[in-house]
Write a structure and sequence with these properties.
elongated, 2 domains, mainly alpha, 106 residues
């Protein structure tokens, strides 16, 4: 599956909220979930097990990249300090404006 197909799979999967959102009322409805996978399979012209395997692979790849980025950020002490100061500045501005719009004052 090439990059374009992977993007298409992610978009299709995302359009069926019951597949990924545990708060969706149909999330536990097995027949609706299976029907959603059949629709994705038909549009992608690939078998469901292959699509699920690819989605699992993409999920693992994303998790690895997030962990790697988090580890790199932990090592950048100056960036952490700047971010902390920026959050404090924004929180103070928000409090001064009593929760109102404050972006123009930063």
């Amino acid at each position: 599956m090439d990059k374009e197909d992977s993007i298409r799979l992610i978009q299709l999967y995302g359009s069926f909220k019951m597949l990924w959102d545990s708060k969706d009322p149909d999330h536990l409805n097995k027949s609706k979930r299976e029907d959603s996978w059949r629709k994705i399979s038909k549009k992608m012209k690939l078998p469901i097990p292959e699509l699920k395997k690819k989605l699992d692979s993409l999920t693992e790849e994303l998790a690895e990249k997030i962990i790697q980025a988090a580890n790199e950020l932990r090592e950048d002490k100056a960036m952490i300090q700047r971010s902390t100061q920026h959050v404090a500045l924004r929180a103070t501005a928000c409090l001064q404006r009593q929760g109102g719009h404050f972006e123009q004052f930063l």
